[in-house]
């Protein structure tokens, strides 16, 4: 097989080429790169020029270049539970080895516990629980909210990820976010509703309560006061604006009402611009059902 054909074959079958694995192609790779047929991603690592900026190709390249490297941050989120996350121009990588700076990559010297590594299309990435707690802050909780909503993580797996990565810089902030997540919010809007209730001293509720209604199906109530049979439904724009969700929400509300539930609906605007209304209406609903917390 001619060197040109060998390079084409490797690009088709392996997507990236490591010079050290193919010493017989050393000169051919140098010429192909100089001619613009392939692009250098990392020292001794090449890909088709038309795909060299593809984040997936770059993640494959760095984890082939360093077999102990693990993709973390937004790259890991994109390959696991958060497929539409904005990646940015830099791939975050954890490695037990010290690397010189490389364009388009951010290296952190850290060996990720093997229990918190999984493979996606042969690329090692941090598990969703570790990814979520690494990305989240108290003011940017979406990484955890989306992870919980995807059901790829639970509060317990998030806590376990923190326990397995103890003594890291930033863990105090991460535990603060975990405390704020204790009611298992599945969206930013739900988390805000939980904060409002806690600040107002409203208790006796659970989040994302599974409810099986004979003949109607299984529903998850955003907020449920089980004793009073009051359901708080939090309508975040990101999810509830979809036509199919709009329809299913109405079917769900009708089924709840017919089963004796009082349904309160709160929008993102209510939660952010008129939180007193949310608290007041909840108090009034509880009073009407013989309970006030």
Automatic annotation (TrEMBL):
InterPro entries: DUF559 (IPR007569), Restrct_endonuc-II-like (IPR011335). It holds the Pfam family DUF559. SUPFAM superfamilies: Restriction endonuclease-like. This is DUF559 domain-containing protein. Residues 196-282 form the DUF559 domain. The lineage of its organism: Bacteria, Bacillati, Actinomycetota, Actinomycetes, Propionibacteriales. It comes from the Bacteria.
């Amino acid at each position: 097989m001619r060197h040109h054909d060998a390079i084409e074959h490797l690009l088709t079958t392996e997507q990236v080429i490591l010079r050290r694995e193919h010493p017989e192609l050393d000169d051919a790779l140098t010429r192909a790169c100089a001619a613009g047929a392939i692009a250098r991603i990392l020292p001794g690592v090449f890909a088709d020029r038309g795909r060299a900026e593809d984040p997936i190709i770059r993640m494959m390249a760095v984890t082939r270049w360093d077999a102990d490297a693990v993709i973390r941050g937004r790259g890991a989120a994109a390959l696991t539970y958060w497929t539409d996350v904005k990646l940015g121009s830099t791939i975050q990588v954890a490695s037990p080895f010290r690397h010189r700076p490389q364009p388009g990559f951010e290296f952190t010297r850290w060996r990720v516990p093997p229990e918190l590594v999984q493979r996606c299309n042969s690329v090692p990435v941090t598990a969703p629980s570790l990814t979520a707690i690494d990305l989240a802050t108290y003011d940017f909780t979406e990484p955890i909210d989306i992870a919980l909503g995807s059901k790829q993580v639970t509060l317990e797996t998030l806590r376990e990820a923190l326990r397995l990565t103890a003594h890291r810089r930033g863990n105090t902030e991460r535990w603060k976010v975990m405390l704020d997540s204790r009611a298992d919010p599945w969206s930013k809007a739900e988390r805000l509703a939980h904060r409002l209730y806690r600040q107002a001293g409203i208790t006796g509720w659970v989040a994302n309560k599974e409810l099986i209604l004979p003949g109607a199906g299984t529903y998850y109530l955003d907020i449920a006061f089980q004793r009073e049979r009051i359901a708080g439904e939090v309508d975040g724009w990101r999810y509830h604006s979809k036509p199919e969700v709009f329809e299913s929400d109405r079917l769900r509300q009708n089924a709840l009402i017919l089963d004796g539930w009082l349904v309160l609906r709160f929008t993102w605007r209510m939660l952010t611009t008129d939180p007193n209304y949310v608290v007041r209406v909840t108090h009034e609903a509880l009073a009407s059902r013989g309970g006030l917390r």
